[in-house]
Amino acid sequence: MPLFLAKSFLLFPPKTFFSASNFTAMTSPPKTRLRGVVFDMDGTLTVPVIDFPAMYRAVLGDDDYKRVKEENPTGIDILHHIENWSPEKQRQAYQTIADFERQGLDRLQIMPGAAKLCGFLDSKKIRRGLITRNFKEAVDLFHDRFGITFSPALSREFRPYKPDPAPLLHICSTWDIQPSEVMMVGDSLKDDVACGKRAGAFTCLLDETGSERRDLHGIHVNDGLSREGVDENF
């Protein structure tokens, strides 16, 4: 039986992560059939292991890092920041970013409950896709190490990056599914939620630390995820 969700903003609470028994819809009809879920990878499907502040310092240098951080209090978008650099400077920056990402590969861990949730979605015949700003090597390792495959799985080799809606719209087109029948799940308001909303999809925020809540103005937040919330919508 298909999963139906009212078009709303959903939030996974701290330390709960993914749980098929804790998946809740917040609002009442009108309802839309949910046919696909697209996940972010770092901090969503996997436990965060990359030291992003150290990466940004290595790419920007201490002085520019401090300046850019002050100019972007909600977070540095390093990939967009280096887009207008010279080709050689860009190449060096991408190499530094890739070095940090490779250092994290040996410590790559799946988020607790993610495999169980994927099995739950499979049992309901809901498709699973992936969009990450990490590189393809990390996506391939995730698939190989944990035996869970997402298709399509778009890494940063696909342009433009999140928060542009293009990667999510590409997945919807590949599936031949409308964005209004898809949910984007991630741990970043400015990348994952923005991407989903711009594409016209459901959006779901995984906020382990509560750090994103200061930006949830006018958005309905759910702190409790329950199996009853799923059962009500099947």
Structural account:
The protein has 234 residues and is of the alpha/beta class. The protein contains 9 helices and 8 strands. The strands form 2 sheets. The chain has a 6-stranded parallel β-sheet with strand order 2-8-7-4-5-6. α1 (52-60) packs across α2 (62-71) and α1 (52-60) packs antiparallel against α4 (87-105). The N and C termini lie close together (6 Å). The model is unreliable at 4-17, 21-29 and 217-234 (pLDDT under 50). It comes from Melia azedarach. This is Haloacid dehalogenase-like hydrolase domain-containing protein.
The gist of it:
This is Haloacid dehalogenase-like hydrolase domain-containing protein. This protein is of the alpha/beta class and 234 residues long. The protein contains 9 helices and 8 strands.
